[in-house]
Predict the structure.
Amino acid sequence: MKRFHFSLRPVATLRSHRKAQAREAFAASIQVFIHAEESLALMRSRVAMFETAIHAGRRDRFSGAGEAEALAAYRHECAAEAAAERELAAAREAMERRRAEYLEAHRQVEVLQRLEDKARAAHRQEVSREEQAAFDEFAGQRRARSQPALSS
């Protein structure tokens, strides 16, 4: 029986390696996205704390200097929250890009896998056909040996 040889094996190995790299890059981008989400949640909770502190401070005595400091700090926290939202959006975009790259790499590996499966099936069919031809030849030879030769 002939041994199966897939001529695109080096390409399949290369694509498999690229798929693994794309999967790792995608996983790293997910981690960055999760970190950005956590950072944004932290910023939002700090802004909410500032808002409640400012509202609570207005109920008591009004101090212009204290109010100015609190508003400056509040604006600073709002700017940090907006920056965290931009970072989250950038992380989401990068994650989607990495997901698309991973899916494309996976698709390319799948294409080669299907090609290899088809080549294996064709190889098996060819080997089976050759074996059947050999069995038929063998049976024909046995039949010819068992029958006496016709003489006229």
About this structure: The first helix runs from residue 9 to 59.
